[in-house]
Amino acid sequence: MTNAFLRRTAVTLAALLALTLALCSGAFAGTTLYSGKEKPKYVFLFIGDGLGLPQLSAAQFLFAASQGKMGEDKLLMSTFPVQGITTTYSAETAITDSAAAGTAIASGVKTYNAGIGVDANKKPYRNFASMAKDKGMKVGIVSSVSLDHATPAAFYAVSESRNAYHEISHQIATSGFDYFAGGGLIDPDGKKSKAPKGNAFEAIKGAGYSVVSGRAELQKLTPKSGKVMAMNDRLPDGNALPYAIDYTPNDISLAEFTAKGIELLDNPKGFFMMVEGGKIDWACHANDAMAAIGDLVAFNEAVAEAVKFMKKHPKETLIVVTGDHETGGLTVGFAGTKYDNFFTVLQGQKVSFQHFTDVVLKDYRAKCGGNFNFEDMKPIITANFGLKFEGDAAADRTVLKDFEIAMLKEAFNRSMGGETEKSKDEMTYRLYGGYDPLAVSLTQILNQKAGLGWTTYSHTGVPVATAAVGLAAETFGGYYDNTDLFKKFCSVLGIATEPVTLAAN
Ligand SMILES: [Zn+2]
User: Fold this and answer.
1) Which residues define the annotated binding site for Zn(2+)?
2) How far apart are CA 477 and CA 273, in angstroms?
3) Residue positions in the annotated binding site?
4) Active centre residues (catalytic)
5) From the CB of residue 224, how many other CB atoms can be counted at a distance below 10 Å?
6) Separation of 57 CA from ligand 1 center, angstroms?
7) How many of the other CB atoms lie within 10 Å of CB of 122?
């Protein structure tokens, strides 16, 4: 290409771009707000962390394939009458983190990644959950991850950093909200804080909350119990609920926490409840499609509880389901499978990458006493992931090819050698992303055999789907930014739709 060509092309492109901008900037400007007289009394916001269209699509293809059908068998959100597309970029990057995304949705301002309830200049803002509380509505915050994690925190806390878990958890006590449920707290004692404020659970109890753990205690709660913080007994990683694929009968599901929330929050002045499916994201960070789909199913069951409630209050309920960003760069399609998919291959997976790392591999390490041998691992892999070492790979998609076995053997050796640290060199990072090398290789190979590809261990910058049903649902159609979700919710709740700063402290 000559310089003249490049110059000419640049001029033409610039002219086209200018024309396009002129055409678009005027057309249909501004986001749809709700102006109806009747405001919904019961408002639900479900956030699938890391839930983009690829996660939804892969799950829906698998559900259909598992019944021998082509096409997508829809989750509830896909059946909602109003569908929107929501952009997710942060103030500084095309790829947001959960803190900036949560802040955009809850407070209506763009911020840097890690900011909770502050704008890009660290100026604090109010979230609309607290404004709903001021209106007399009850407020519930439910998450499958710890309650001081970025997404739930954006709905009750202000913090310059999402990592200030201790300071964030103390804001549960001062929120005045009615129901916190799901995971626990990461730093209740302030071990990582420069200025510990004392045990956060004690502070929460001191503010009048009943703090309970386990199903028996959860079931005892009634609308007369007052303010509540409820957790699952078992919080195996990061003080979060287990992955749904690893649930045991004693584990409280996201749907159970949601149903209890509805029971406790129901009152004549109405309520707002935010429910987060937080581990869809964690599974996608680890490139584990089946763990993500399991948590998406658990999330869908929580949405079903709201739909059940809406059937009793059809004219007074609004349900909105969205994602805060896509995670993993998942797609339906992979180089090795071209135009084909073999979704049901995924069903051979019985445990999450996390359970495989923390329980199965830990047990093996303890038993082998340093004498590790890949031959021992083969039946363990087949039992947990359905991948076979013998057979005709052309006829049976679950049979591993020689190069896949070589990749697993290499990963096994690194795994047994203790290589689980955030990989220092880029080549190793690209292979394993800082996860257990064998666990992450197994889910990647299984996913690839199903025809699913991953591009990153982080988030991506593509927009997400937002779906709505019920009174004022039409407000949520269109292509709009995540900060517009704040405005839309404010208009639905009958409060001013511009972001509100908090007095500087
Ligand atoms: Zn997120």
Assistant:
1) 49, 281, 285, 324-325, 459
2) 21
3) 49, 149, 151, 276, 281, 285, 324-325, 459
4) 98
5) 6
6) 18
7) 13
For residue 82, give the H/E element and its range: strand 82-87
Cα 76 versus chain centre, distance: 17
pLDDT tens for 403-439 read 999 999 999 999 998 765 556 788 889 999 999 999 9
Amino acid in the structure at residue 372: F
CB neighbour list of residue 47: distance below 8 Å, 6 or more residues apart: 102, 105, 151, 274, 275, 276, 277, 322, 323, 324
Q: Does domain 42-329+458-493 have CATH number 3.40.720.10?
A: yes
Contact between 86 and 461 (Cβ < 8 Å): no
240, with CB counted inside 10 A (0-12, 13-18, 19+), is: buried
**What are the pLDDT digits (tens) for 2-36?**
577 777 777 778 787 877 777 666 566 689 999 99
What's the rounded Cα separation, in Å, for the pair 146 and 293?
20
Q: Domain residue spans in the chain?
A: 42-329+458-493, 331-453
Q: How far apart are CA 321 and CA 469, in angstroms?
A: 9
CA distance 322 to 466: 4
Residue with tokens 């929107």: 84
Cα–Cα distance, 285 to 303 (Å, whole number): 23
* Strand stretches in 16-77, DSSP E: 42-48
For residue 48, the CA-to-ligand 1 centroid distance in Å is 8
pLDDT tens profile 356-375? 999 999 999 999 988 999 99
CA 461 to centroid of ligand 1, rounded, Å: 12
CA distance to 68, 89, 296, 364, 389, per residue, from 282 (Å):
29, 19, 12, 24, 29
The Cβ of residue 495 has, within 10 Å, a number of other Cβ atoms equal to 16
Cα 208 to averaged position of ligand 1 atoms, centre (Å): 30
The total of other beta-carbon atoms located within 10 Å of residue 414's CB is 19
The answer to whether 474 and 40 have CB atoms below 8 angstroms apart is no
Q: How far, in Å, is the centroid of ligand 1 from the Cα of 302?
A: 18
